[in-house]
Amino acid sequence: DRRRMLDRLKLAAIVEKSSYLWANNAIGAGGQTALHDLFAALRRIFRYVEPSAHEVLFVLMPVAPDGPRGSLGPFVDVTLPVLAQQVRDGDVLEVLPNGRLRVYHPAKVNPKTLSHRAVLYEYRQRSEYLWGGGQKNEIDKVDPAYDSLFSVPAFSDLREAIDYYKTRLARRSSCKILDEIWHDKHRVFLKAKPESRMRDSLTQYLKGTLRGDYEVRPEQVVDESHPVDIKVTWFCANRLALIEIKWMGDCRPHNGHPGTKYRDARAKKGAKQLAEYLDANQVHAPVHVTRGTLVVFDARRARIGRRSRKLDKADGFAYEHREIVYSPAYHKTRKDFEEPIRLFLEPKCR
């Protein structure tokens, strides 16, 4: 992971260097200096603004003091810590000489016109462009997993880490902590109340996997009554992640009597809880960019009874590709709610 991060930084430096030549040709005198200042400003801005929360965003670095800004309409001057609260889709952020930012909310933006006396950065649906002298130049994407060359890859790193955990550790219960959730060696029934071990397993994995300056803590209170299962805090940016864990399957206590049985409704309840946690967290952490992820450990089996020991593959894997239909689908209506991740836990079949 560290090697990959270093490779990304090297590639980013190469991309930036090639952009200076373009700026010199497109803008002429002052173009390279303005572009250098723009790149530095983008890194500062994206510590506070999450690019993936927007479809379109512009950042303007004037080459001359009288750059073409009059057509952008009303504006508000802001500081970085409150920037995330002010920026909306399609906004133009102008970098002022004193380091502050001016946010415009224009009805329409013409990048070609704006870029005649300025260097303009455009973010559009995970693609990035530079404008200068009326010319457009696409910025090469050094890593398809990252939303922007200039942003802190907090949420994309987290998603990638959980996807790896899903396929390499959770699927066959390869993690020793996760292996303790099973009532039987064939992984048909769960032990009573397995959620704490699931949380501990994922927490331990994330602590040793995520990159950068971060903290992973289990059971963190976000409202007056309930703790979220895992909270990830990045110290290099204003990013927070809340992870709610639910499980589905059949649970059997040690005495052998039938235990708890959870199906889709349990996951849907988790989605509702997470949405409420995100709302509560926004009250207490208004200047942070927060994302919620629902992680569902899926141990559902078909046609099992109290005496089931080892299943055939058809019954053991009946739910392998049975996705959950969420209603409401928070991940489609809220930008702070990631698409839920379902971890299918394989049984040992005959």
TrEMBL record:
Name under which the protein is recorded: Uncharacterized protein
State the organism named in the record.
Answer: marine sediment metagenome
